[in-house]
Amino acid sequence: MAFTATQMSLVVSSFGLVSFILGIVAENKKAQSGTPVHKKGSVICIYPSDPSIALGYLSFIFLLATTAAGYYSIFYPYKGKFLSQSIFFRSKTFIAFFNIALLTGGLGAAFTLWPTIEEQNFHKHKAYPITTEKCPTPKIGLLGGGALLSLDSTLLWLVALMLAINVREDFIEYGDEGENHLARAEISTSI
Q: Is residue 87 classed exposed, middle or buried when 0-12, 13-18 and 19+ CB atoms within 10 A define those classes?
């Protein structure tokens, strides 16, 4: 089955939007604190039931799907015309957006996964020393920050896809002269 760039951009943006929404909902549903119960020589923390752990993992999975779909969409042979990856990496603008999309995707994954795993550990290991006065919870705002980075990554993948389409059209239209045309186009846009 042949895909078009529009279909691929819809897949990328759908996965990214779902990741963003799940991350925001996970941040909002996260327990603010646990209730400490003093027992013999320790404190047992009782945390309310919340869906933030499952939502955090789902947000992470959809972010990975967005990144994979974004990467795949850039190098996909549209209209049956395959181009070498080296052709795309001749464009400095494309390189910048491609690398920033990868970086924000990685940061979004870290910001989503870290508090999710931390919260899961807090729910699993509930006993703390008697000196504990407050039950620990993950830092507030990390899941929301991960959700925003996920949305940023999605938008950057879409920009990288648009730049890849421009590189593809220039190379197909101008052939081997496409590299010279690409260099002239970058010089004219930077001036």
A: middle
pLDDT for 83 equals: 79
Task: Kindly state the percentage of the chain with pLDDT values over 70.
Answer: 89
Query: Which CATH number goes with the domain that contains 172?
Result: 1.20.120
pTM value is 0.83
Domain that holds residue 185: 5-189
The token pair at 32 is 């603010």
Distance CA 96, CA 166 (A): 15
**DSSP class per residue in 72-139:** HHHHS-GGG----HHHHTT-HHHHHHHHHHHHHHHHHHHHHHHHHHHHHHHHH--EEETT--S---PP
Query: How many angstroms separate the CA atoms of 48 and 122, rounded?
Result: 12
Q: CA angle, corner 86, sides to 108 and 65, nearest 5?
A: 30
The set of long-range contacts for 79-84, using a CB threshold of 8 Å and a minimum separation of 24, is 79/2, 80/2, 81/168, 81/172, 83/167, 83/168, 83/171
